[in-house]
Amino acid sequence: MRSPRSGESGSRGVIVNRTRMLSRVFSAEACEPGEIVIAADRFTHGSRERVVCAHSDLLRGSVERSGLRAVVREMRVSPAAIGGLDGAGMAGWALSYELDPAHCVGFAAFAHAEDVRGAEVAADAIAEWSRALRTRVLVREGAGAVCTGTRRLLETVARQSDGSGERVVVYGAQGCGRAAVKEIHRLGGRLGGEGVAPKPGDVAVVGPLPLRGEERVVTEAGAPVPVVDATCERYRAAADEIGRLSGQGGHVVLAAPGREGAAVESLGEAVAGRLTVVSDPGGAESVPVPAPGAVGVVLVPGRAVRPSLAVEGSLRTRFGHVIPQRPATYCWEADDRRDSVRSVAAVVDLLLVATDAADQELDDILSWVPSGTPVRAVGALRDLEPGWLRSVGPVGVVATSNAPPQLAEELLTGLRLLGPTDTVLRSVSTTRVG
């Protein structure tokens, strides 16, 4: 697209279809060479007097990827060049379109009237987002990125922090992820342990993992602190099964496929010396046990059930018999999470993954997506590129557990401003029926 030049008529370069208009615009306001000014609120575009600016981060990302500085501010827009710009005003391009007959949304970007490079960047950015506009279905994963145990913990912290005047100290949040820890801090809580002792008047929230061993929650002076139990029910059920099997004199094998974590370590403390962690069926073939006729198997909550049962199957093949965990105590949330992501990926042209830097869970999600479905990892709304959306219909949005809590919703909000949309939830849920 040809960039606007100072003094050219604002009536030229207008592209109009039934709902979309793209044209040159000008402003008498000041702008520094080398920066792009993005309209922040509303602007007039031809006969459209109240065009609401779409999310500025979308256009900001395009500008910053070009190497120029983006400035977002409210400004007055004119459809024609104002006499006497003399290098002091701004020339740019505006895009507007009808979300519905009563609402117009769009973008406007400007550069210094004599900044040729800036004018090209503004024109290209507006043109690229123009090509990304269309009617779409947005598909959101309904299972959620965090498990029930973590959600219960955050809800408990929020209740205890809500206007009570009490401070909240959290124990057992190991392994919940960076985003959950940030949310605890946002809610006014802090993590206990490792030299952080509660103070008089504090309340301790324990979960989703329990306190370690003989650990007690007391102040530095040794005074007890009120404790609110938010321990994960699935974790508690697994711990009870370990106690039941070890109480029968068995050696317990903890089936923990994938990366070991805080839940594995915490469960292992329950019967120190009589519990072995096995991460794959191959490991089960060589794990030492003192009494082959009394081997119990427990599945770690938060891990997929089938790979865990493969460990049990390998032990059963090796020894001919194992003492199994009761199936009613299995945790199916990892399976539901994986299958929910797959259900979203199966019906979209593009899958956006809201994530955080160096998030290991991103690799898991990529492994769940069917071959051939394009996937883009997004750490902020401004990372969304218009080229990804060209010729793309349904778009899916999922999130890792470490992603900023509001990022997935911010992505959906941004996408809703790129044309008429409908948003649907897809999820898989396992329910016990006895």
From TrEMBL:
Keywords: 4Fe-4S, Iron, Iron-sulfur, Metal-binding
Signal peptide positions (record): none
A Pfam family that the UniProt record links to this protein: LYTB
Gene Ontology BP terms: dimethylallyl diphosphate biosynthetic process; isopentenyl diphosphate biosynthetic process, methylerythritol 4-phosphate pathway
Requisite cofactors: [4Fe-4S] cluster
GO molecular function: 4 iron, 4 sulfur cluster binding; 4-hydroxy-3-methylbut-2-enyl diphosphate reductase activity; metal ion binding
Name of this protein: Uncharacterized protein
Species assigned in the record: Streptomyces nitrosporeus
